[in-house]
Design goal:
Elements lengths: L35 E11 L16 E5 L5 H12 L12 H8 L4 E8 L2 E9 L5 E9 L8 H14 L7 E7 L6 H7 L3 E11 L1 H4 L18
Parallel strand pairs: 5-6
Antiparallel strand pairs: 1-6, 1-7, 2-3, 3-4, 4-5
Amino acid sequence: MTATTPSGRGAPDDAVHRPETLAVATDGYTDLPPGLLATLVTYLEMTAPPAPMTAGRPLPPGLALRRVERPDPAWYRILYDRIGEDLLWFSRRAISPAELAAILHDPAVEVHALTRDGAEIGLLELDRRVSGEVEIVFFGLVPEAVGGGIGRFMMDRCLELAWAGPVPPRRVWLHTCAFDHPAALGFYQRSGFRPYRLALELGPDPRLTGAMPRTAAPQIPLIEPEA
């Protein structure tokens, strides 16, 4: 499960991403040119911390969530790719290591790794750069770790961290999309998030631009532009 759109932008929630040359129908179908992808994005928020859903339950053994101080961009990208390649996460692949380091080393950005028996299986990134808000920019597990209650444990810890501090935020928010795990939207709603906005995200297919391998996300059709 993830908390991003396929670009993994972590963009401000008032941003709109669509090519200026494409006229999008407000009622009915809009044909996409070959090489362009579109996905429905759902924005969700909570304005008060929920009760932990794992309280009183036995947790999966060997799990720990640790903060990674000043993450190395190379380390980050390896875990990011393991989680996001089949979900078309590509934004952090499209920027330089220096640009990535500038984001990850910002004092208002927190990166956490979920481990099981010492092996890294999950990524959590919180962004506090907007006053009064915490964005869950990335929340994901490697494919083999999905299921068995691991995501629930990670979300409970995520929300504890997001709401912590001497001055709690006004809200915690995230966004997910139709390319995400089929259970993701329901998972976030059961976690206490309320959907408040829909958006259509359009952009070039990263498998055709070279930002991602052509074999990534085989469940999403790859349509070649005409020669």
